[in-house]
């Protein structure tokens, strides 16, 4: 009830509400009593559904973002170019538009972050203060994105960044889980393994990430102007734990799934002809080396990290993907 009273008359603008993390956070904030607005290009924008007011517009249109943000206390910047495409053209102009809107209305920006910011010199355990020297183009773009966000906090903008591992969840959108490990829309008969044998991998369940962001938003006035947090998520220590959880859930639903190695060789052959595959290859290093995150700072701030048991999270994810009979 206290949280409801604190957020009763507050408004949030969500950019990327049609995606996994943006949509989940929008729903959680609405349930917590926030007035939620979402900027989208989809044809039915302008309607109110699930308690969310949809506004027709594009995150690349600064005027549209500033107008939509009027009256908002928080702007969630969860928008990304789909399929890794056109990052160099779109990512930085979109964050610039969000910063302009936040500056105009006095809102706090909330950003879902990634491990892309970091290079091998920071592995295997990442803290919020680890050096950010990425070796990929997308990593360099993410570093510049956060640099601009941090610079904006020097003249009044406030920002919260929550960095996490590979997303999975019932509505996670484009993800390694839904496009690499299993195939949506049918029972699981094969689980693919993208990682090297014995190499750990970090996974983050979208509802847990959204809940973490919501709790930090409620405490935003007590945080630093630029506040970054890491989530420990689900650590798959040998690269097999997630696959075994998928097989276990599938078995309970009457399907026996086998494992096989992800066909990186095929991706390599097809990459010259497909932008998305070329971008996937650039990030392959994250399947070759273990990369963990320390959530010590998050634990000190919230007292705990929201954490759904793995098989519970996997079952909800497979159900959302249409993989369970």
From TrEMBL:
Cited Pfam families: Epimerase (PF01370)
Residue span(s) of domain NAD-dependent epimerase/dehydratase: 12-219
GO cellular component labels: cytoplasm
InterPro entries per UniProt: Epimerase_deHydtase, NAD(P)-bd_dom_sf, NAD(P)-dependent_oxidoreduct
UniProt GO molecular function: aldehyde dehydrogenase (NAD+) activity
Protein's name according to its UniProt entry: NAD-dependent epimerase/dehydratase domain-containing protein
Organism per entry: Trinickia dabaoshanensis
